[in-house]
Design a protein that fits this description.
2 domains, alpha/beta, 13 helices, disordered C terminus
C-alpha cells in the first residue's frame, strides 16, 4: 500500500464529519487505506457514523482510542498504524476536492526527493459557504523554509508526507496546540524537503466552532514562541519545551478574559484578510484595529510582515 490517509475525529458536528469522510472516499485516486481514529471514546454518535463507513468501504480502518489522547497523540497513533509509504492528513471538519490526492501523488512520483507536500485552500464558513481563496503560496523547498521563519505556510489537513521520514524525527510533539507548526520547523531544521502545489485543493473551514477562543490563543502563542525562540534554543542545545510554559503564562494564554480579547482581535484580522482576498474596501481599517487590539496578535502580525515593516508599524501606530 503506497498511501494511507489519517484522520482524527473528536466532537465535530456529524454533517461536517460526514462531509470530510465522504470527500476522501470520493477521491479520483482510490488506492489508499483510510485510518479513522475516534479520539472521544464516549462519542457514541460519531462512533456509529464512522462504523457505517467502515462497514461500507473496505479501505476504511476504524480505531477507537482508549482515552482522549489529544490531536498529537492520536495522529502519532495513526502514523504507527499506517502501512503506506506516504501519509495524507485530513481534518474531520474540512473537505478535500476530488482530485486532491491524485495531483499530490502525481507530483510525488515525479519528485521523489520531496518529503512533505502541501496544497492551497479555499476558505469556507461553518455552513460550507465560500468566504475567500488562499493567496499564492511558495512552492519550492527554500522558499517554504524562508516563509516558515515568519508563519506556518503548510496547510496541515492538506499535507502528504513520507511516513518513515516523519517518524524518524519523532512525529508530533505533545503540545496543547500548533503541533503541526512545531513539526514543520523541526523537519526543516533536520533537512527534510518541502514543496507546495499552489492549487486550491482543500475547502478549509473557519468560523463557528472550528476553533475556540482558548485554542486560538494557545495556538497563536505557540506560533510566536516557535519563531522567537526555536532557533536560539537549537543553537544553545536546549530542549524545545524549556521555557514554553513560562512563555504561555507570560503571554496570558490561559487567562479566559485575555483569550476572549485575543479572539476578538483575531476576528478583526481575519476580516481584514478576507476583504483583501476579495478585493473589497475597508481592509486597512480592520487591519489597524486588529494590530492595536492585542499584544500577542501584534507579535504575530509583525512576524508575518517582516522586521522592517514591523518597526514602521510600531513607530506609526503603537506607543507604549
Amino acid at each position: 500500500m503506497e498511501l494511507s490517509v489519517v484522520m482524527s475525529a473528536f466532537r465535530e458536528p456529524p454533517d461536517q464529519l460526514s462531509a470530510a469522510v465522504e470527500s476522501i472516499l470520493a477521491q479520483s485516486f482510490s488506492e489508499f487505506e483510510f485510518i479513522l481514529l475516534l479520539d472521544d471514546p464516549q462519542n457514541q454518535k460519531a462512533l456509529e457514523l464512522l462504523e457505517s463507513y467502515a462497514a461500507a468501504d473496505r479501505r476504511v480502518r476504524l480505531g477507537r482510542n482508549p482515552r482522549n489522547l489529544g490531536l498529537a497523540g492520536s495522529l502519532n497513533r495513526g502514523l504507527e498504524l499506517a502501512v503506506g509509504e506516504y501519509v495524507a492528513r485530513m481534518d474531520a471538519d474540512d473537505i478535500a476536492l476530488p482530485e486532491r490526492l491524485e495531483r499530490q501523488m502525481e507530483f510525488l512520483h515525479a519528485n521523489p526527493e520531496v518529503d512533505i507536500l502541501g496544497v492551497n485552500r479555499v476558505y469556507i464558513d461553518s455552513n460550507g459557504r465560500e468566504t475567500g481563496r488562499g493567496l499564492p503560496i511558495p512552492t519550492g523547498d527554500l522558499e517554504i523554509k524562508r516563509a516558515l521563519r515568519s508563519t506556518n505556510i503548510m496547510l496541515h489537513p492538506g499535507i502528504v508526507m513520507k511516513r518513515e521520514r516523519v517518524l524518524k524525527i519523532g512525529g508530533y510533539a505533545d503540545l496543547p496546540a500548533a503541533q503541526d507548526d512545531e513539526l514543520w520547523l523541526r523537519a526543516a531544521a533536520m533537512g527534510l524537503k518541502f514543496a507546495n502545489l499552489d492549487q486550491h485543493l482543500m475547502l478549509y473551514r473557519q468560523g463557528g466552532d472550528s476553533i475556540s477562543s482558548k485554542s486560538a490563543m494557545l495556538q497563536a502563542a505557540i506560533l510566536v514562541y516557535d519563531r522567537e525562540f526555536y532557533v536560539k534554543r537549537r543553537v544553545e542545545g536546549l530542549g524545545y519545551l524549556d521555557g514554553l510554559e513560562r512563555f504561555l503564562e507570560k503571554a496570558k494564554a490561559y487567562d479566559p478574559d485575555d483569550q476572549r480579547r485575543y479572539k476578538q482581535a483575531r476576528d478583526s484580522w481575519e476580516r481584514a484578510r478576507g476583504l483583501l482576498r476579495r478585493g473589497e474596501p475597508g481592509a486597512v481599517s480592520w487591519l489597524l484595529r486588529a494590530y492595536l487590539s492585542h499584544p500577542l496578535l501584534r507579535r504575530q502580525i509583525n512576524l508575518q510582515l517582516g522586521w522592517s515593516t514591523k518597526r514602521a508599524l510600531d513607530r506609526l501606530f503603537y506607543r507604549r
